[in-house]
UniProtKB/TrEMBL annotation:
It comes from Acetoanaerobium pronyense. Pfam families: Bactofilin. Residues 120-140 are annotated as: Disordered. This is Cytoskeletal protein CcmA (Bactofilin family). InterPro entries: BacA/B. Belongs to the bactofilin family.
Length: 140
């Protein structure tokens, strides 16, 4: 019934330019380029020209601006991504999302609003308002 587009969900995260480990906490503004992985506690604003992987042990409180983002930990804040946001089955996102492609895995948690954008010139923008979903409850 639904076809899966593998190419959009496949972001390569073997090598990282920056790693914030699980025994690390950070308060402030993070500005970076490249591939970033956060496994620790982060409070503040994140601005990345590149990809962000939020690990299972991470807890982030603040807004995120990024090219692509995979959420496997906990995020309380808004995500503005150019291409892709994916919430894995372990991920929790409490905040709004603005993105071109949005993937929510089974058992993931998302509560917020989602604004879908199309990056092509003169394109229309679709808005999905008041999206409140808890994917876990859909299986009941």
């Amino acid at each position: 019934m639904f076809s899966k587009k593998e190419s959009k969900a496949e972001i390569q995260f073997e090598n990282f330019d920056t790693l914030i480990g699980k025994n690390t906490s950070f308060d402030g503004v993070l500005k970076a380029e490249g591939k970033i992985r956060i496994d620790g506690v982060f409070t503040g604003q994140i601005e990345i020209k590149g990809d962000l992987l939020i690990g299972e042990s991470s807890k982030i409180s603040g807004d995120i601006s990024v090219t692509n983002c995979i959420v496997s930990g906990e995020v309380k804040g808004n995500i503005n991504a150019v291409n892709l946001v994916r919430i894995t089955s372990e991920g929790k996102l409490d905040g709004d999302v603005t993105v071109k492609s949005f993937i929510i895995d089974e058992d993931a948690f998302f509560e917020g609003q989602c604004k879908m954008t199309n990056n092509e010139k003169n394109s229309s923008t679709k808005e999905i308002s008041n999206v409140k979903s808890n994917i876990k409850s859909k299986q009941e």
